[in-house]
Amino acid sequence: MRHQSNDLLDFANFIYGHYGEVKFAYAEADRRAVLQSQAKKSKRLIIDEINEKVENYLEKRKYERLIVYSHYYIDFFNIAPFTSHNHATGLLLLYLLMLKGEIEAFRYISFFEILYGEYPAFIKELQNASVNWREGLAQTLGFVRFIFRFILQGYEKADAVINEYKFDATLNKSDNIENTIYRLPKIFTKEEIRIQHPYVSESTINRTLLKMREAGCIRPLGKGRSAKWIRIEND
Are 58 and 64 in contact (CB under 8 A)? Predict the structure, then answer.
């Protein structure tokens, strides 16, 4: 996926278009410049100019990719190019930039779940990086450090998920599910089993439920995917 100005506008309208069309805002003309045109400039042009610089930097390998992307996000945040929903669209942009920066961890775990846990620190560093931004004197190092810590946290969580998957793969999946059912409340659903075993196939869960039903350990309380089951207590 791309992150050109029209792509970002499409993201915003795809999600928020039912509230009303999101459009590009206009930047106020600098009236201190005597020879400059007094006409307002679309912020779309500003985003296009920044994108061109980003592509140039990356093509020539002038700066490290993630550092360029971090500064690009800070610029987007401060430019606020749309008439509404700039912050949410900016978070989607940051997610996309992480993927384009080849941060593979966020292909397997939730980027936004980690961001939610770090949100106060994220906002604080973003605001600090925006001080004196208009004067071209933004102090961005703290935000860049936060992004790298954030990425490391993502890889640590991804590593934990991988290790858990490897551990589950060495066990008998059916026995593992059966043990989980005995730990669940007396009345339970298949969704509760899936939460505990996200990598086990639907057919394996169904086979285990059928085996336990035939053994008289459980019985269904309805039909369909959302049906509940009850564990039959016995000696």
Answer: no
Per-residue pLDDT tens digits for 41-96: 899 999 999 999 999 999 998 899 999 999 999 999 999 999 999 999 999 999 99
The DSSP line for 169-227 is HTS-HHHHHHHHHHHS-SEEEHHHHHHH-TTS-HHHHHHHHHHHHHTTSEEESSSSTT-
* 112 φψ region: left (φ > 0), alpha (ψ -120 to 50), beta (else): alpha
- Distance from CA of residue 57 to its chain's centroid? 25
Task: Please name the amino acid found at residue 139.
Answer: Q
**Amino acid of residue 185:** P
Q: Single out the residue of 111, 197, 198 nearest to residue 154, CA to CA.
A: 111
Q: Which tokens sit at 138?
A: 């933004």
Residues of the chain where predicted confidence (pLDDT) is lower than 70: 29-39, 168-171, 225, 234-235
The helix or strand, by DSSP H or E, that contains position 26, with its residue range, turns out to be strand 26-27
Cβ-contact 98, 106 below 8 angstroms:
yes
Indicate the Cα dihedral angle 195, 197, 203, 205, nearest 10°.
-80
Q: List, in order, residues 6 or more apart from 16 with CB less than 8 Å away.
A: 22, 84, 85, 88
pLDDT reported for residue 201: 83
